[in-house]
Amino acid sequence: MKIIEYSNNWFIEDQLDDELLNDIKNFCDNNLEFLYADKEDYSTTGDNAEQYWFQKNGEKPFYYKNKEYEEIEKRFREGIYGRLKAASLLKSDDNIQLRQATAWTVIGEEGSYHTIHTHDDGLTGGISVVLYLNVPDSKDFSNSIFLILHSDPSNHFIERRCPSIHHIKPEVGKVLIFPYNIPHGTYPQTKGIRQTFNVDYELYKNKKSSINYS
To answer: In the predicted model, is pLDDT for residue 85 greater than 60?
Structure first.
């Protein structure tokens, strides 16, 4: 697991286990026709890209009566929670829980990309997760995601020469975790399929619980 902190911002980069990765991929493949497609007002751009929702704010969640998805989502959420704990990004006195707010999969082909954006209007108090299910071959930044970590020279950060803009080359099974307020996007992709599984988690917590942003 790789942890990058810069000023009071951070992200985690890790690899999902093959069993859970395959379960998520198979579930997406087998249930795509039952999800609703909609990319209006979201960052997915290009005629060769589509966005399919498991749960979207204001809409009835797909998984309410789907036990298979409930089980997969539970395993995925527990893994994300464990990584946050291992990275010491949850304060020691927390009794914090993660609750799925939104979940979707994006399937893009050549030329599609994501404009720079944050989640939930850039508010703090939530966690965004990106898992790569399929990735085209590329030797440059064509298929990369970039994250912008705001700098504040007055604060301590782990890597003294850590740049504020990070480019991450996607790989199948790679999972990225970062706060809602981190600006991010992707470059136009090359030929092939780039598919991600994406979840936004709200923090379900006691009054004294919080995410460690500093």
So the answer is: yes
Q: Looking up tokens 């599984």, which residue turns up?
A: 197
One-letter identity of residue 168: I
What is the tens place of the pLDDT at every residue in 106-156? 999 988 888 888 887 655 578 999 999 999 876 666 667 777 775 544 444
Amino acid identity, residue 99?
R
CB 120 within 8 A of CB 90: no
Residue spans of beta strands (DSSP E) within 73-186: 97-108, 113-117, 126-134, 145-148, 165-168, 174-179, 184-186
Element (H, E) at 30: helix 18-31
How far apart CA 18 and CA 49 sit, in angstroms, is: 26
Find the radius of gyration of the CA atoms of the chain.
17
Return the H-helix or E-strand segment holding 57.
Answer: none
Q: Which residues pair with 51 in a beta bridge?
A: 106
Question: pTM to 2 decimals?
Answer: 0.85
pLDDT at 173: 97
* Residue 49, CA distances (Å) to 74, 106, 128, 161, 169 in order: 28, 7, 20, 36, 19
| Side chain identity at residue 139, one-letter code | K
Tokens found for residue 149 = 């970590």
For tokens 């990765």, what's the residue? 21
